[in-house]
Amino acid sequence: MIVEAWRTQYNIYRPHSSLGRRTPAEYAKLGSATTSTLMRAGLATGDPSMKADTSGEGNIQIYTVVVVSSSVISALKGPSLSYLLKVFGKKPRAVLLCPGPVLLSRQVKRAVNNTAIGHRESAFSALLLESVAMLKPLVGIESEESTYEIAFITGSGTAANETILSSIGAVGPTLVIWQEQIDLGKVEEALRRKCYQLVALVHHETSSGMMNPVAEVAQLAHRQGALVFVDAISSIGAEVICLEQWGVDVLVGASGKGLSAMPGVGILVVKKSVLERHSSTSPRSHYLDLHRHFRFMQEHAQTPNTPAVQVFVSLHASLKEITKRGTERSRQVIRDRAEFTRRQLTRMNLQYADYESNTSSVVTCVTLPSWLTFEDLAREFKTEGIVVYEGKGVLKGKIFQIGHIGALRKHDTRDALRQLRKVMRRFTEAEHEPPIPAPSESIAHALS
Ligand SMILES: Cc1ncc(COP(=O)(O)O)c(C=O)c1O
Predict the structure, then answer these.
(1) Ligand 1 proximity of 156 Cβ (cutoff 6 Å)
(2) At residue 174, what are phi and psi to the nearest 5 degrees?
(3) Most buried by CB count within 10 Å: which residue of 50, 58, 243, 302?
(4) Ligand 1 binding pocket mutation candidate from 163, 204, 210, 234 (most atoms within 8 A of CB)
């Protein structure tokens, strides 16, 4: 009884130095005034909640629960939002500005959360068939009576690539074109010197941001009787692909880049005639057996093994969004982000890889000024939740990449560029040299 009386006195009536010589009751009133101020400012919705926690050994914990409405969040500018989050001790929202994995939209996340289906259920088959139908315009399959088949494999983009190379590519020699800037003369010469079964090339070279001339290479390959295999892993959904028009025989894509879904599904697009021609080829791998995947798709609208169902759901939901928005409109959104970024970089006197009409809109490769390391830059970005990637291979330490794909919000790119400007100011105000960009040829030079 005495203890209870003491506790009440301590928790309600006694002033505490930690509360500015106020009693807990007075402090709670002050708190609710703060909350109502926040409510008037439009920062809080619902019931303000002040709670004096009297549990434990007389320790007092006072919480102000602020529910910030999403409309207010989106109206807030980046820095004011991150300030608000810092005040309330929250980490800023993660913003993935790398060329995959990418941010998911609210609708995609909702679909993943709300869908629980088994991979042998008809609902899953329907989801696969709808995904196939929605993918067709994205890869340039326009004709009613399509000459292509589409199937899926659970795995990253590499699983899709290896499925093709270990099945169709295993039949005869493959010419892999992997150059900084494809020299069509050299390709023609190589094709004349040797009889290739398959010519493989990447549509968008993700590490440099360059688009390759697929149609021209396909023409040369077909002239010599070779099939054409295109890796469109980072371009599908973001760049124009004209499979039928270009005469590509095989194409692979992935879910977690330009298609704005979770990573983990490989997309296989193969000409029917190629599938028929190679149907008796003995597989080199059980899991990566191309024909087993297409057989299951054709006969059951299923995958042979247990697929990453949730990733398929995310892909389906994202394809629905892209279809609703329009294929071209969706690409334009990505292009706009890239163009905005490049305009701002020019204003900051920073250089980026520019291959004129062959520059992709998936990613911008920015030359690191000599006075800034990628580690310093990445650390500064990370304080605002922003993730950017460093150049790979010969571009390591020379460039960093700003990605434009995924469900980025309108202000994400702007905030990242503002942060970049801040970093530049901070580093140049210190003892560093002024921001003189590296020579314009630096990226081409590093790649050559
Ligand atoms: C063009 C291209 N091909 C293949 C890959 C490999 O894909 P993954 O890392 O999903 O296996 C990537 C990865 O970024 C890529 O950009």
Answers:
(1) yes
(2) -115, 130
(3) 243
(4) 234
Domain 106-325 belongs in CATH node 3.40.640.10: yes
- pTM here is 0.80
Q: How many CA atoms lie within 13 A of 346 on its CB side?
A: 8
First to last CA, the chain: 84
pLDDT tens track for 50-91: 333 334 344 444 444 455 555 555 555 555 566 666 666 678
CA of 415 to the centre of ligand 1 (A): 27
CATH code 3.40.640.10 region(s) in the chain: 106-325
Q: What is the pLDDT of residues 327-369, one digit of tens each?
A: 999 999 999 999 999 999 999 999 999 999 999 999 999 999 9
Q: Where in the chain is the domain with CATH 3.90.1150.10?
A: 95-102+327-447
Q: Is 233 in the pocket of ligand 1 (CB under 6 A)?
A: yes
Query: Which atom of ligand 1 lies closest to the CA of 156?
Result: 10
Which residues of the chain are modeled with pLDDT < 50?
33-34, 36-42, 44-65, 438-440
Q: At what angle do helices 157-167 and 290-300 cross, to 10 degrees?
A: 100
